Predict the 3D structure of the following.
Amino acid sequence: MLVDTGFVDIQISQPHDTFGEARGEKKARLFDVYGYTFLARKLG
Amino acid sequence: MSKELAFNPVVLREEVKSKYRDVAINPSGEYHFHTGRPLARRLGYDSALVDSMPDAAVESFAGVANPFSLRSLERGEKVLDTGSGGGFDCFVAAHQVGPQGKVIGVDLLPEMLEKARKTAESMGLKNVEFREGLLEEIPVEDGWADVVISNGVINLCADKKRVFSELWRVLRPGGRLQFGDIANGKPVPESAIRNIDLWTA
C-alpha cells in the first residue's frame, strides 16, 4: 500500500517480538504476527 | 471502499476506543499487549530518555515497534503523530526535534488527549499540541509535516487506503513517513478477519 500511494525509498526493520510473553502471544504466534518499523519518503 | 469490508468499520472503531480508553484510565491493567516502560525497553527506545520521563508520559504507551529506529528526527522538524495516545512518541519526538521543532499528536480518544495535554504541560513542552481526529480525516493542513510518525494504529483502521492517502496529503514533498505497525507472516482466514475481537484482543 505504501508503493500504491506513491511512497519511495521504503525500508523495513527487522521484526520486533512485540507480543512475546504478553497475554496475546498465543494469537500472535498463530498468524506469525510481529512488529516492524517502516520508513518511506514522499516523492518531491 | 467501505462496502467491500468484511466487517462493520463503525463497530471496529468503537471496540478500539473501548480498549484504548481502558489503557488511558487504567494503564497498569492486564492487556493482551505490553504497555509502558517494559514495552519501551522491549522495543529499544533510548533508555536514558525514557527513564527521564514522568510515569504519566510512558505508562499508557502501547505501540508495537519503534518509529525512530530506522531514522532519528532532525532538529527543527515538524512532526505529526497519528494515533498519539498518551503522547509517549510525541514526547520522544519533541526531545529529538528540540524547541525549534513542532509536534502535533492526533488521537480519537478524549481521555488520551486529556492525559497527553496534562503530561506535556507538566513536562514544560511548549512545542507539542494535541488535536482530536481520525486518521481517515487528519485535522492538519496539506503538506504541513516534515515527518509523520505512527505506532500500532494503522492496523486498527478499517480503510487503510484512505489512511495512507491522508498521510500522503499532510506530508510535504520529500517528507518522511516512519511508523511502527504489525504484519502477519501467515494468512489470516476470512472468518478471523470478520471476528472483531481478534482485531483488539
About this structure: Residues 17 and 182 of chain B are 19 Å apart (CA to CA). Residues 2-194 of chain B form a domain with the Rossmann fold fold (CATH 3.40.50.150). The beta strands of chain B are 78-82, 102-107, 128-132, 145-151, 171-184.
